[in-house]
User: What shape does this take?
Amino acid sequence: MLRVHFTLEDLLKVTLAPAPAPLMELVLATAMLQQPGIDPVFSRWQQRALRTFPRAARPLLELVPPTGKGPLFLAPLSRGLEDGMDQIRSSPAAFVRAELQRVCRTGRPQTPWISRLARKDRDAWKTLQNAVRTGYNGLLAPVWERITSAYHAERAWRSHTLARHGIHSMLAGVTHGVRWREAVLEIDSREDRDIHLAGRGLTLLPSAFWADRQVIGAYPQGPAVFVYPAVTPLPLLEESSKADPVAALLGRTRTAILAMLIQQHTATDVARELDISKSSVSEHTKALRHARLIVSKRVGQAVWHTCTPLGLELIAGAPA
Assistant: This one.
């Protein structure tokens, strides 16, 4: 069992990641490729992905075990591929060595290439960077738009749960096998370990590629990361209907505005992002406000708009 110990400061620092992390998803997808007796939802995806997995990406299989607990320097919480590649390249040498040693202690063979990675050998790191880029392009890039849309819908739903029921209920409800014992979050796991957050906080990250037990990554700096299976896994996103009843009800532009207002924005932000006029944004936000789907607040010269709980429920229920 994993036991995550919270202080009051940690409870105040529980957040949902603002967007899916591409390199974390790549690590988890690489793990799912290797899982025997995989969840039936992923079996056809696994067979197809194994056939098409690029040869240049195969070094990742040496680093990432089926448990998903690969080296943390390989899975930064980046917003994009290039940002993530920069974070991998700038990983401190001591952190790289410690993570590679941990992975090898838990069952991965220490190959000559891994030994060279630990020494920060230039050619070994070129191979790694090429594997990451090729793996992303082969596994994630074709489906990234779907993953991102589904992620924001789930994030809106979790945010609504947090607002209505509080942190304890939201954390206990992210997946099965999670419960509270006073200020300790107990998680069913194959390993027996205590994790003390010690004021760093916790970031929640649902994964469309993951169908196994929860994974917690304790990075040297910043909050710990709690990865759990998304409500809708990738194969179901691929097979879902493209029909959007919310767009049929509100129209595509208002639906796009409502989706954008999961996070607070001004009319200028919306107009720039959706490439429409500010007067058009004003008309649409007025209609959404009258329908009680958004609220608006003036701060100085700017008017900020954001979804109401009803608007969040509507967007969370829309197909990706």
Summary: The chain has a mean pLDDT of 87. The radius of gyration is 21 Å. The first strand starts at residue 2 and ends at 5.
